[in-house]
Specification:
single chain; 187 residues; alpha/beta; Rossmann fold; five-stranded parallel sheet; 5 strands; globular
């Protein structure tokens, strides 16, 4: 059974698409942070190192939940390790990202790796240079760096999905990739 991760800047859209993909696969949504841990998030707002530790713990607990799900059903998650890693890399290395051969570009060997990662482009991601024409919000330079990191990531390589205004169009764009992966497993 596949483990699929939905990434992107807009959490609400990620959650909706995660639910729809899980239904398509007759799979299960796996939550990050896991149930019971979300309420603890505010406890760590005053310390960035404690907050990082909290998110790392949540990722590993969520990965364990995926491992327990996969023997029975597909697992689909909104935001996973790469969500946190891209933010940390963007903060640490902006404006100069690490070289391609840096260990920073490696998935942790002790963390379950997804079979597919989809990245949902929203309008800000697709058109970062259109300010002030399409939005009243000022551009967030870290978002551009995060997007660049997602584009450079190789293993597993994120699949970029055009973020339509209709959720069914987003899922329809994902289905061929999912079916191709499932077909290759059967071959």
């Amino acid at each position: 059974k596949p483990f699929i991760v939905i990434e992107g800047m807009q959490r609400r859209i990620r959650y909706i698409i995660t639910r729809k993909v899980a239904r398509y696969l007759k799979g299960m949504e796996v939550y990050n942070p896991p149930p019971g841990y979300l309420e603890l998030r505010s406890w760590f707002n005053n310390s960035s190192s404690l907050r990082r530790a909290y998110f790392a713990l949540c990722v590993y607990i969520a990965a364990n939940n995926v491992k327990m799900t996969l023997p029975f059903r597909a697992a689909v998650m909104s935001g996973y390790w790469l969500d946190q890693a891209t933010f940390a890399l963007a903060k640490k290395y902006k404006p100069q990202l690490p070289p391609d051969d840096s260990p920073e570009w490696k998935w942790p060997s002790d963390l379950l790796k997804p079979d597919l990662i989809f990245y949902l482009n929203n309008r800000d991601d697709i058109l970062p240079m259109t300010y002030p024409y399409y939005t009243t919000k000022k551009p967030d330079p870290i978002k551009d760096t995060i997007l660049e990191i997602f584009k450079k990531w190789r293993d597993p390589k994120p699949i970029f999905i055009k973020n339509s205004t209709r959720y069914r169009d987003i899922v329809a764009e994902m289905i061929p990739y999912i079916n191709q992966m499932l077909y290759s497993w059967r071959a």
